[in-house]
Amino acid sequence: MARHHTIDLVTFLAPGQKLQVDSPLHTLCRMIETIPQPTRSTKERARTALTSLLPDMALRLESVAMRNLVAS
């Protein structure tokens, strides 16, 4: 696939997770950007469940940092 396409990857990393230097992603992707996976407390999840029209799963990985990376 990479021979016919240019692949840029933006992804979340869970706490404690790191992209390995020898990951095959480095040979497939022109650019890799990682940001920490957002976390929401139980209190925050309950608040948004009561005040948002969006389901909890839609807000689970909501991230301004990710939106900015994708937009750039």
Q: Explain this structure to me?
A:
With 72 residues, the protein is of the alpha+beta class. The chain has one domain. It has helices spanning 25-28, 42-51, 56-59, 64-71, and strands at 8-13, 31-36. The chain has a two-stranded parallel sheet with strand order 1-2. The longest helix is centred in the middle third of the chain and has 10 residues, at 42-51. The relative contact order is 0.20. The mean pLDDT is 91.
The total of beta strands comes to 2
Total number of domains: 1
Tell me the helix content: 25-40%
Tertiary shape:
elongated
Radius of gyration: 16 Å
Mean pLDDT: 91
Element-by-element helix/strand order:
EHEHHH
Described by strand count, sense and barrel closure, the largest sheet is: 2 strands, parallel
Distance between the termini: 23 Å
Poorly predicted runs are none
Strand order of the largest sheet: 1-2
Query: What is the strand content?
Result: 15-25%
Q: Tally the helices: what do you get?
A: 4
Structural class: alpha+beta
Question: Keywords, please?
Answer:
72 residues; alpha+beta; two-stranded parallel ribbon; 4 helices; 2 strands; 36% helix; 17% strand; elongated
Describe what is shown at a glance.
This protein is an alpha+beta fold. It has helices at residues 25-28, 42-51, 56-59, 64-71, and strands at residues 8-13, 31-36.
What is the topological layout?
Layout: E1 8-13, H1 25-28, E2 31-36, H2 42-51, H3 56-59, H4 64-71
Parallel strand pairs: 1-2
